[in-house]
Amino acid sequence: MSQAQLAKQLKVSCEACSLSELCLPRGLTHDELVKLDEYIERPRSTDANSIIYQPGDKFHAFYAVRTGGVKTYLTKKTGEQQILGFHLPGEIFGLDGMESSKHRCYASTLENTSYCALPYDKLDNLCEVMPDLRHQICHLVGHELNADHTHLLLLGQQTAHERLASFLLSISKRFKRRGFSATSFILPMSRHDIACYLGIAVETVSRLFKSLQDSGVVQINRKQVDILDMEALQNMVANCEEDEG
Amino acid sequence: MSQAQLAKQLKVSCEACSLSELCLPRGLTHDELVKLDEYIERPRSTDANSIIYQPGDKFHAFYAVRTGGVKTYLTKKTGEQQILGFHLPGEIFGLDGMESSKHRCYASTLENTSYCALPYDKLDNLCEVMPDLRHQICHLVGHELNADHTHLLLLGQQTAHERLASFLLSISKRFKRRGFSATSFILPMSRHDIACYLGIAVETVSRLFKSLQDSGVVQINRKQVDILDMEALQNMVANCEEDEG
DNA sequence: CGCTTGATTGATTTGAGTCAATCCCAGTGG
DNA sequence: CCACTGGGATTGACTCAAATCAATCAAGCG
Fold first, then answer.
1. CA nearest B43: which of B17, B21, B82, B22?
2. Is-above-0.90 flag for pTM?
């Protein structure tokens, strides 16, 4: 993308943004949107692997991914990381700062990424006069909690096979929601990141991708994924409910 | 507890409740508390193993444990459950309903339990005029998110030994915060529940308790736990930050 | 006092991790 | 334009932590 194109894109208001139906503005009226727009800090574009915030940093805003992708993670003292979530365009991150006004985990970019900042104190004030905004924030926070719960079920009770299938289905669903193909897409994260998210070893990810491919369920080439048999993939996940809401 | 005692306790207002410093009312002024108190549905006392809500139930309130204990959990179709959290007196649960106004997980009691209900629509209205309440709710939600994140790190990256040590330390810390001993307490949940929370087998829980006991770190007798060497326990958890805030 | 349910203990198995080579591609520089 | 190189990805051999299977054991309880 050229500098000119980038600059143009970055000026886009929430109302004109193609992601608004997925993002914080969802469900707000025109007037509400105009008010909200005033306060949004329009971004911020960074390379891959740059850290947006880390534990101890002051929490002053929620963030919304515009292009690219972000991972949030915690680390053990020994260095191993647990990825808490991947955040695709239109998704919010940064909620880990709500408890104490300090962030508790790391957020870093998976690739070239641009994102908006939604200052917390401004949102808080707007909540007084905009019930719709309040409800939308509750919805987003609730979604985050439920996503974490699904992730807990995955890490605690699913086999490596089931984990990888769940992961592919989750990514597929999210691409679909953004208007992209649900069956053919490019993974924005490395094998290492997938492994850290699923709580398994990188080698296991490789082996399982191969096994899925050998059984004709998917076609994998590096980061390019083609789901050949969606139903088979879904059958591998024998767990309970999940929904994007 | 006799019926008379129970009835008396149940009438206690938030302001008079010994748990208010841990619970939703934390940080509110007298006037705010009086207003809040009007809306709180005072409880609700149940036996062990009774289900408070389950997936699909309409979400209409947050709940605060007064006495006893509650677990929230998800299940796989095959029946295995993943416990998402244990909730002790003064702690809030029910946030899983925020996304869609339907609950997404199960909540059931560990023992004889009483709890208050905090109707969501009333809280929402109060948020308009009580910034302190808004902030306290954000704090609680943020705490829940961070607790889930710590749990994800535990399930994804810690060994069975580390998990059990983390669990004991977490329970110890929470008892201490409630004014009880940090080193001698009675676990409110079964071995099975501990196993489901930690993502390991019941037999493993038993073996690890024995191993901790053999190495002189703790003394375990059924549900009675005595921590003999707190420092050793803490050294077993080689992971990153965690704080009760 | 037997019965039921939860907890412990032991023997054995196994899914996934670890260690150790390659392999393969993207990016670099000649 | 192509050889070189470094880091992610794959593959294979081997190991091991924890699961599973299978008895007891202990403690409430009707």
1. B17
2. yes
